[in-house]
Each structure stands twice: as structure tokens, then as C-alpha cells.
Amino acid sequence: MLALLAVLLMAVPAIGQQAIFTSEGLASPQINEDNSVTFRIYAPKAVKVEVCGDFLVSDEGGWGSAGLTEDGHGVWSWTSAPLASELYSYAFVVDGLRMLDPSNVFLMRDVRSLMNIFIVPGERGALYSVNDVSHGTVSKVWYESESLGMSRRMTVYTPAGYEDSGSRRYPVLYLLHGMGGDEDAWMTLGRATQILDNLIAAGKAVPMIVVMPNGNAALPSAPGEGPDGLYQPITRPPKSMEGSYEASFLEIVRFVDSHYRTVRKAEDRAVAGLSMGGFHSFHISKQYPDTFGYVGLFSAAVRQLEDGTGVYADFDRKIARQFADGVELYYIAIGKDDFLYDENVRLRSYLDSHGYPYEYHESDGGHIWRNWRIYLTDFLQKIF
Amino acid sequence: MLALLAVLLMAVPAIGQQAIFTSEGLASPQINEDNSVTFRIYAPKAVKVEVCGDFLVSDEGGWGSAGLTEDGHGVWSWTSAPLASELYSYAFVVDGLRMLDPSNVFLMRDVRSLMNIFIVPGERGALYSVNDVSHGTVSKVWYESESLGMSRRMTVYTPAGYEDSGSRRYPVLYLLHGMGGDEDAWMTLGRATQILDNLIAAGKAVPMIVVMPNGNAALPSAPGEGPDGLYQPITRPPKSMEGSYEASFLEIVRFVDSHYRTVRKAEDRAVAGLSMGGFHSFHISKQYPDTFGYVGLFSAAVRQLEDGTGVYADFDRKIARQFADGVELYYIAIGKDDFLYDENVRLRSYLDSHGYPYEYHESDGGHIWRNWRIYLTDFLQKIF
Question: Is the pTM of this model over 0.80?
Fold first, then answer.
């Protein structure tokens, strides 16, 4: 049996001789007892090795970098200061070439950037981790969009116990991504599966269905997951913020209401999104005022407060009707350094001047997933 | 609006200054009209750049490599010979350091190796691609294993139309991974979603439910997807081939039969797997002889033909009963160069000497995913 096991090791794809010069066997990243983190890479021919990541801040506010030092045997390393509990992202830069950590298979994609990740333990790290709690089901589901003329992919989370709860009906959150994102983004970059599982298990959020559609009206799915093949993702797909998606949104609601055991009432429906998804949530909730009782705008783009065409027509009248119908919660959250901060100041002035009630949360930082995970965590505890 | 769109571009995480020295903007890999493929990477400080991949064969039969040439401006490139239609894997090696292609976000993980992928068009490429056909639903589902003492994750494929087909019941294929694999492997490395969608849409396979559990009895899930956290995957997890998993397997069947609209008869159940998963299929189908009408052994490890303990006890009697009960299809496939070839010769001798019927397929090549995708494609057209 041992001989068989030994030989099965060979089932790992054999790669070229060069590939033995990787960092296999090195621990990287290594979370130390004081929550500092050590990064290592074997690069004997390198002249300069750096690590860049979101736990390092550059002068411009983006990812900073730190230089690794070589041990005389080709192993470069660097240890951070103790870090707060969080999910972090990073990559190496070897002689100017950005690359992933060969010792770490865990990564996320943001548009066309791949980044390694790690979790520093503690309260927030636990919230973003898979814990020994009951888990919901995550499905990739296709629906037909007549108005957009294609089959389109969405992610659907059903909470633990859904399959065994007979005829019980659940509230639904529609959770929308930002520009350059897709139906996978909230589950990967946003850790929504883990946040939902953990909050529901702790009794801090009610069991709910969460629907994450694709908000790029010209695209069927995330890159590589549709009939448009394996293409280089683009940051700004066409037809992202011109009304087609918002106008098609009830197709998604009808699909969900006819395929899942939902409560089909506004007080059991929420729509929330980040950045472009906040823009979508803003206009969708106003366009269909008796549909969504809860609205979440996370670092939202809040343009089109003047009359436009289609879903952007009749702004004042539509938002007046939305609030006249009663909104259980109109939730706005943004970071102090967000480039969309002024947009949100303007929105709040408008709401204030009309006496429309809302809840406002201002955080540190800018237009980043760390903030969106925090806003989601807060919002989930306030709906339904 | 354009100003907003421009500024939304900044939502992509800003990375260190170093990161501007990447290959963004380069087309790589570029599939040319004659199905040759050009690889490019911007690496101005590199001395030697190679591409290694499964379309290049080394003297040892593993991945070979080819050297790129530099254009005087830091861009290295190399063009392959025209390639047969297939899904291929590759990586770059820059001055001895293995790295992914910065221009290609599409990749697969095999144990702890990350590899870029591309598809060369044609018949097989189309089979492995997402096409404009009806798509099944792919779900990540957790079940409770009493015998293994933990919640465990599985992947479940339900065919297009399942949700809208009322009380219609479907046959079920249990599809098992190899050592070092997990419940994600058949869907990522094996392209099972695409193969199923395409064969079912073409009427070449019947609509079926496909269940892909995790075959490592000591583990709850794929690395990073369970409460064991973000750890470095290992090739040989404990309790992989010592009987625990096979002995627990009816828990999975019961879960599936009670949560999906299945036909609960042997003639509508199949079990198939690759390598270790073939070993599991071999023993599971014999242990529960009235449960599976179809058995697929793809490059299977076929040890334990002598009496052992537990599920490995009473070999002759159990397999005699399995074939006495009637097996619709006992399917064996292996490559000429597979390191488990002799095991399969021995199994066939045993089956021949006892007059147990089976179907045998011998392909070129060895213990590789390319072969397992082909075996799956063939097997799917012969069951139910």
C-alpha cells in the first residue's frame, strides 16, 4: 500500500526541470504568534525582491511595498509589523516582475489582477473564515433574460436548512457588484458566503436567500464562464450604467420568486450593492418602488439625480413615491477617502432637503473591498 | 457620465509602482489562425525566459519547455507549432522562477500547483468550452457525515431544466476525484460542467445529476473551503485509501436521494472515478452490489484484490455477487503509458478468468487530466 501511495505522488503533473526552483516547502505567508506575518520566496538569481499588499500603504494611498532580504542561500524573507485581524491581499515583485507567492495557492481575482490572500486571526478574520457552523448552499444558476437577449449566470446562496425546511419561505437580498466585477465577486473578494454562514449561525442575521446577478448588461457571466470564452477581463464593460440592466431587473426577481421559496413582499426584499452596484440599487429600488423594502448603497456611484431617459426619467417623482410607499431601511455607507464621497454628500443633501429618512455610516479608508465586507456585515444584521 | 466611468476605473486596487512593469496590454496566450499559440511576457530584466506546458513533452514524459526570445524592448515571446484542439496548461519560468502568465487570468489548481490554461478551438476545445446551450446548475452543498464525524462539502450538478421539470426523477452519477484532488477537481481540471452541458444539449448523454464528493476521509472539503483554514495543500492526505471513505459512502447516497429528485435504483446509478477515485469506485461498487448499475474505472488504482479488512474483506465473494446481480456496464480505461497500467492488466486478468464482462478502452498517454476528460466524455454517453 505504501508503495502505491508513493507512486500516486507522481500523479501531480510533472513540470519542467526549471520548476524545481520554486518555493515549495517554504512557509509563506507565515502568521506569527504576535500576528506579524513572514513572507518567503526562493529566488536565488533575483537582485531585488519586494512584497506589495493592502497591509502596506503607499504615499498615494494604494498598495505599498517592502523589500525582502536574502539569506545567502536564495531564500528571501520579510516580516511585517503585527497586523490587525483582517483578510489581506498581496503579491511579490521580483526584479520588477509582479508574481504570485509560489507557496500560497489561495488567491482572488479583481478584474484582471490576481492576488494572494491570507487571514490574520481575530474577530474579523473569524467572520471571513469558514468555521465549524452550518453552511448554506452556493449555486451557479443560469436564467433567461428576454430583454437582454441571452442566458445569464447568477450566484445564489440559500441558507443552512433551506433544503430541509419544507414549505418555509425566506426573505431575499439582491447583492450587486461593482464595475469590472461579476456574479462571483461578492463570494470571492467579498467573502459573502462566510459572512452569511457565520452571522446566521450566531443569530445575528436572519436566514435569507442572497442573489448575486451579473450587473454588466452586455455580458452573460464572469469572464471565462460564458460562451464569450477565455478573454482578458476589462475594467469597463459596455452597457454597465446606461439603464439596460436596471430595466431588466424584474426578470431576475421573477426568476428567483418562481424558483426559490421566497416571501414575495417588499418588506422581505432588499437590494444592495457596491460602487456601480450601489448605482444600480439606487435606481432599481426607485424604479420599482413597491418591490424592495431595504436599500443598501455601499460606496455607491449616485449620479443621475437629474432627469434622464428610461429608468433615469422622472427622478423626483419616482424617489418621492419610493419613500411615500415606505422604506424600511435606506442605508448609505462610504469611506472618508472614497473618490465617490462627494457624490454621497450630494445624495444626502437631497434626501435631507426632502425629509426622506436614511441611515448613514462613514468609515475610514476608500473604495476597497475591506470596507464593502464591513458594510455588508453591518447591513445584514439590520434587514428583515 | 464618461467622467464617472473614467474615475470608476480607479476602483481596481492600486498596487505598488512596481506593478506597472507587468504584461498588461500584451496578448498572451494568443491563439493564431493556424492554431499555433504565441506566448508573451514583459520582463526587461530577465536573462532567460521559458514557457513550460503540457503541449511540450520532456524527455521524461512530463511537461517540456521552450525558450522565449526578447525583442530588445523587454518583451519576450515564443510561438508554438500548430496545436491539436485541446485544453492546455502552462506556466512561465523566468530566470528559474516559475510564475503564471501576467496576461492570463485563467488558471487551474492541481494540488499545490497553479497553472494557466487556454483552449485551442476545434471539436475537443468546443466540448470543454461554455457554449450557447442550456446550462445546468452547479452547487456547493454540505452534508453531515456521522461516520466521519464532520460536515463535508460536495459539488452537485443538476442538468438544465431540472428546476422546471416538476416531479421528474433523474439518474445519478457519483464522480470521484484522485489523490490530492477534492470536490472541485472534476469541475475545474476535468471541465465536467462544460462536458455535461454540451453532451446533454447535443442529445449524446441523458440529463443526469452528477455528484462530486470529497474523497479524502480526513478532510471536510477542498483546501481553503473548510474550517481547517488556508493551509498548503498536500498530495497525500491521511485516510485516503484505507476504507473509511468507502465505508461512509452510503451516507452520501442517502443524502442525495433525500435532497434531489433521483431514481433510487441501481440501473439509474453510476459510480466512476480517476486514479484513487477509481480505487474508491472499484471497492464501493463491490461493497454495495445492488446500488450501482454502472462502474467507471479511469486510470484506476486497483489494489486490494486480496482479502483485507472492512470494505476490503471477502474480495472474491463480493465481486462475484456484484456481477451475479448484474452490472449494466463495467468500464475500464487507461493510457498505455500510465504508471498504473500493470494494475489494470492484473484486474482484467482477474475479470477474464472469472468470466465477468467489462468494456476496456486503452488510450495514448499516461496519468493525466487530458485522458480523464476523454474517458468521462465517453463514459457519459454510455450510461443510463
Answer: yes
